[in-house]
Amino acid sequence: MAVEAPPLRWMASLLYLAVLLTGLYFVGAGLAPDWSRVELAVYLAGLIALLVVEQVDWRRPRTRRWAMAMLLIRIVLLETVNAADGAGFSRALFVLVPFFAYFWLGRAAGIGLATFYLVMALTRTTTVDGARTDPEVVSELFMLFIGLVLAVATAAVAVEQSRSRLQAERLVTELTATQERVAELSAASERNRLARDIHDSVGHHLTAISVQLAKAEAFRERDPVAADRAVADARRAAGRALREVRESVGALRAEPFSLAAALFALVEGLDSPDFRVVLDLTGGEGRDGEGRDGKGRDGEVPGAEALYRVAQEALTNARRHADAGLVRVAVRSSGDDAVLEVEDDGRGFEPETTAGGGLSGMRERLAALGGSVRVESSPGRGTRITARVPAGAR
């Protein structure tokens, strides 16, 4: 049984010291005329040796073999002190033997030794003439029984206290390890979130910039006005990209995220004669629903930022890969859920056979909020992406 030193480890030393001082007082007061100097020396030396044993024992790492050796040394010293003790004070110390046995060797050893000492005391009493009718002897037997019971009970309490303390320390260690693991998982989750944000925001704006610059290069000779407009659109897209990067680094917004305002800005940056984007916000979330600062009144839309990132990714794919000419973006409520639909008239694809970071990022982002993404597409039939976020998602 692996337990630590109990809070009662001073008990034995205190009892040894009490018996030693009582013996000295007994001799000094002249109450022990039959006590020889040799017996007194053995008595004192044995008790001092027991005190030293206690100091050595509590400072050494505990093993079963060491515990058995120290218990045997205590028994030998106690027998030696008792043999030299003419007054019988040291007999009270034998209750410590079951205590140590119980604590270090287990309950069976403790109760077994307590029973052994009680039987031996009863045996000695029955072999002495007149002892069974001597009130003093009967009283000593009764006190021995009480002392043995208290010693075993005290050892049981000390063992439970030590075991509880070890369990508490182990629990604290496990809790600390769990907290560290949670911190690691949180850090990994945050890295994944940042990766998705960079892909969905910066990647989208870089695509828009690339398209506008390609348009400017194509129209530079034929239509300088259109080329200049394309360069201006690219510059605005770069400004939006820089602003979103700053917001991501800041990580905290001074006011709630507005899905309506973000989608209006997104559509305005992409809508052009060769790539038309139509925005439909069901429930009056049009421009009239915006405040003076241009932010919509939908700060309480569940998962608003996640829906915005899905729309951003879907529009980027429609422009970059689908060769679409018209895209419809709609936000509506379905019960308590918020639903985003992005539908284009592009070339389409096979969702089952097409895998990419964009679609995976959409699904991961919505799954983290308890939502879902459904992709409907086929070659030549366009694509519809439906994202749903449940109420309460943030």
Number of strands: 5
Number of helices: 10
CA-based shape: rod-shaped
Average pLDDT, all residues: 78
Strand residue content: 5-15%
Biggest sheet record: 5 strands, mixed
Total domains: 2
Helix proportion: 55-70%
State the secondary-structure class: alpha+beta
Summary keywords:
10 helices, 394 residues, 5-stranded mixed β-sheet, 62% helix, single chain, disordered N terminus, alpha+beta, rod-shaped, Heat Shock Protein 90, 2 domains
How would you characterize this protein structure?
It is a single chain. This protein is α+β, with helices and mostly antiparallel strands. It folds into two domains: 168 residues, no CATH class; 137 residues, Heat Shock Protein 90, CATH 3.30.565. The chain has ten helices and five strands. Strands 1-2-3-5-4 form a five-stranded mixed sheet, covered by helices on one side. A hairpin with a 5-residue loop joins strand 4 and strand 5. The longest helix has 85 residues. The radius of gyration is 43 Å and the shape is rod-shaped. The N terminus is likely disordered.
Summarize the structure.
The chain contains 10 helices and 5 strands.
What is this structure's SSE topology?
Blueprint (H helix, E strand, L loop, with lengths): L9 H19 L8 H21 L6 H21 L11 H10 L1 H21 L7 H85 L4 H27 L8 H12 L5 E6 L22 H17 L5 E9 L2 E8 L12 H11 L4 E6 L5 E7 L5
Parallel strand pairs: 1-2
Antiparallel strand pairs: 2-3, 3-5, 4-5
Helix pairs in contact: 1-2, 2-3, 3-4, 4-5, 4-6, 5-6, 6-7, 6-9, 6-10, 8-9, 9-10
